[in-house]
Amino acid sequence: MDLFGTAGIRGDVRDRVTTDLALRVGRAVGAHAREAGDRSFVVGRDGRTTGSGLAAAVEAGLAAAGVSVERVGQVPTPALASASRGRRGVMLTASHNPPTDNGIKLFVDGQEYGETAERAVEDRVAAEPGHADWDEWGTRSEADPLPAYRESVVDYAEQFGAPPDETEPLTVAVDCGNGVAAVATPQVLRELGVRVVTLNATVDGHFPGRESKPTAETLTDLRQFVADDGADLGIGHDGDADRIVIVDGDGEVVHEDTVLAILAEAYVRARELADPVVVTTPNASGRIDERVTAAGGRVERVALGYLHDGIADVRDAGGDVAFAAEPWKHVHTAFGDWIDGVASAAVLTRLVAADGLAALREPVTERPYRKESVDCPDDAKSATMERLATTLPERFPETTAATEYGVRLTFPDDAWVLVRPSGTEPYVRVYAESDDVDAVVETATETVRTAVDGVTD
C-alpha cells in the first residue's frame, strides 16, 4: 500500500480518496494516537463538495478507535494546524487540486505527520484496524477556531514592517479562488489597516472563478484588476490557503523564490538568533542563499515535501530555524510549525506597507529560472534517476554533482540545474537557474528523455 505522497493522502474521490478509505484512515490514525497516549483530535475541511462526507467518515473512524473529535467545519489548513496544537488534527483537503479530488492531511501539535508516523498509519490501514470496545468509543463536539486564529495572525504580523498610512492606506487585491482563504485573509488584512478588494471570495467547492491552483495563467483576472485599478499588491491563494502567489502593481507575478528570499532575509534580520538558519528545498533559487548570507544567516536544503523533517534536523543539530519554505509555501517558525499562506499574506503586506515592494525586490538578484516536466511512468522513475546520476554529469562536465535529492549540478558561476522525480505525478521535473537557462534546460530535458526512453523501451 502506498497512501501518502509529499502532502498527505490525495486523489480522486471516485476511486482513491473514498469514504471507505477515510473511515479506515480515521480508525488507523485514532488507534495509532491512542497508543501514544493521545485521545483528542480536531477535524476540519476545506470547501470541496466532498469534504462533509469524508469528514464524517474520518470522524466515525476516530470515534470507533476510542478518541474524541472536535469538529471545526470549513477552515483554512493553517487554522486547522494551529488548532491541533497540544493534540492531533485531520484536515480534509486536496489543496490546489481540481474539484474532483480530495485528500487527508494529518497533524500533531501543529506539525504535519512525518514519514515515520505516516508509515505507521499506512501499515494500520493495510491491516484493517478494528474498533475499540463499545464503552471506549470517543465523543464528538463542535468549535470555531477561526476568530482566535485570525487574531493571532494579526498580532504576529504587527511585529513586522509598519502599519499602512491611514490617510492613504495600502490597497491589496486578494483572489481567494473560491477557497477557504475567503474566511481568513481579507479579514486579517483589514484588521491590519489595509484596504482590501476581494475576487472569488465565496467558498465554492466547484471553484467556478478559476482553477484552484494559483498560477500566472489562472490569476489573469487578479493581474488585470491590479494593473488597471491601481492596487498596490495582489495576493492569490489556493483552495485551502496554505499557498500564496504575489502580484506586483503592474499585474506581474513575482517569482516565488523572490518572495521567499524577501521573507527569509526579513526573518534573519528581525530575529535575534545565535545561528539563524533558513530551511528550503533543492529546487529553490540561489537568490535565497544570497540574501540570507547577506543578513548573517545560512541555508540548509531538504527534499521537496519534507520541510518539517528539515526543521527538526536543524534544531536537533543546535541550529535556530528563522524561516522555512519551498516555492509558494512558507513556515513561519516563530508563529507555528505549519505552512501558512494567511500569515505570509499578513507579513508581506506589512513589509510592503513599510518599504514598498520595489524596494524589497531591489537587492534580490533575479537570474533567469525555468521549470519543465518530462513524461515518465511512475514505475520507471527509479531506473531513470539511476541512469541520470551518470548521464547528466557527463553532459555537463564542468559542474559539481550532488545526488542527495535527485541530481543537482552546480556550475562554476553558481548557476545550477536540478532533475528529480515528481512525488505526485508521472513526470521527472527539471529546474534550472542560469544566465543561459534555455540552453541548460534544453540539454537537461533531452538527457532526461533519453534516459526515460532507455528504461521504457
What features would you describe in this structure?
The chain is of the alpha/beta class and 457 residues long. The protein has 4 domains: 9-144, Alpha-D-Glucose-1,6-Bisphosphate, subunit A, domain 3 (Alpha-D-Glucose-1,6-Bisphosphate, Chain A, domain 3, 3-Layer(aba) Sandwich), CATH 3.40.120.10; 159-247, Alpha-D-Glucose-1,6-Bisphosphate, Chain A, domain 3 (3-Layer(aba) Sandwich), CATH 3.40.120; 256-340 and 350-361, 3-Layer(aba) Sandwich (Alpha-D-Glucose-1,6-Bisphosphate, Chain A, domain 3), CATH 3.40.120.10; 370-456, Alpha-D-phosphohexomutase, C-terminal domain (TATA-Binding Protein, 2-Layer Sandwich), CATH 3.30.310.50. 37% of the residues lie in helices and 22% in strands. The chain contains 14 helices and 20 strands. The strands form 4 sheets. Strands 1, 2, 3, 4, 5, 6 and 7 form a 7-stranded mixed beta sheet that branches. Strands 16-20-19-18-17 form a 5-stranded antiparallel beta sheet. Helix 1 packs across helix 4 (115-126) and helix 5 (146-157) packs parallel to helix 11 (341-355). It is globular and about 65 Å long. 53% of the residues are buried. The mean pLDDT is 94.
